[in-house]
Amino acid sequence: MDVQPISGASAGAGRSGSGTGKGLLALLLGALLLLVTACGGSDSASGGEGGEKPKGGDAVKNAASQAVVTVAPKDGAASVATSGALKVTAEKGKLTTVTVADSKGNRVEGKLAGDGASWEPVRHLAGGTKYKVHAVAEDAEGRESAKDTTFTTLVPKNTFIGHYTPEDGSTVGVGMPVSINFTRGITDPGAVEKAIKVTAVPSVPIEGHWFGNDRLDFRPEKYWAAGTKVTVQLNLDGVEGRPGVYGKQQKTVTFTVGRSQVSTVDASAKTMKVVRDGKLIKTIPITAGAPSTTTYNGQMVISEKYKVTRMNGATVGFGGEYDIKDVPHAMRLSTSGTFVHGNYWASRSTFGSANVSHGCVGLRDVRGAYDGKTPAAWFYNQSIIGDVVVVKNSKDKQIQPENGLNGWNMPWSEWIK
């Protein structure tokens, strides 16, 4: 059969709808293919968009940090030692942030090594306390890595505290040291002393000195200036003062130094001159220790005051020589029993003319301490804890620094050793 070619208007008209639609569709598909090819470009061969692997700078930025943070003790550790156990380190990087805090939010002060590779606390931790550690390190490319852990310190079975003087909030004389007596003998005095901070306003260097293994006193080189504000921070909680024995005290104590009063007893002249803020305000006739029971020389600090007290010779090595149940206006100057006090049993003429006491400094007084006008009553009312009484020209030795609050009798060069 012969095939005839399609020609003429009638033939074209009969097939135009179908032919034109297919052509248009082909053109659209071709354009779409070109558009997809243009968007993908040559990258389509390497994975295209979404499957592309980072290159160059982008690859470095998206890589994990090379810095590795390590915290000791391990996360969740219990019964951790309060000293020497906590340390944060970084490998292949430097620490940028280290935060250690207890459950109350109190932060632990620490020290970062110069190269940024490690961090340690500057002081001991508290006992029986849960701590949270947050540490961040940065590698050479500035990428950070973090670690968060928790641990709990040991609960001490054996503890100690320090009994301190002066009292919190008190006003004291210029000779008042900070004196702390511990309930257990201390075998690591460095750790304990490091945990106690004494500061003053106006500022002055303050140093501690140990008397034996259970007493630590702090003082400046010279008497405090009048008006000084002193703060004592006892951060003993968790300090291992001796093997297996830990402090359990966390306390801040403040006191104020009042006016300056220094009274000088001349045992030979049998007088006491009272100097207030550099001015002599009164000279009082006294009686000091008898030739066989002389009064110590030296600088002594009033540590206790009693309007009336009992003095029994048997308690200070004098047997039954005396037992006076109502000694008036008594103020302690030494642990061994030296007082400045009222005396009602000696005649009025004794004061200023004879030394008849068992080592104390006696001032004229009345029995019952009812007369506020006697020399003893006046001095008692004018004195506060921490005032200084200096005894000179007595035929006795100088009082030992540890006998009472009398560290002023030790040279500064020896005190700071």
From TrEMBL:
GO terms for biological process: cell wall organization; peptidoglycan-protein cross-linking; regulation of cell shape. PROSITE patterns: LD_TPASE. The active site is at H341 (proton donor/acceptor), C360 (nucleophile). Signal peptide: none annotated. Residues 261-392 form the L,D-TPase catalytic domain. It comes from Streptomyces ficellus. This is L,D-TPase catalytic domain-containing protein. GO terms for cellular component: extracellular region.
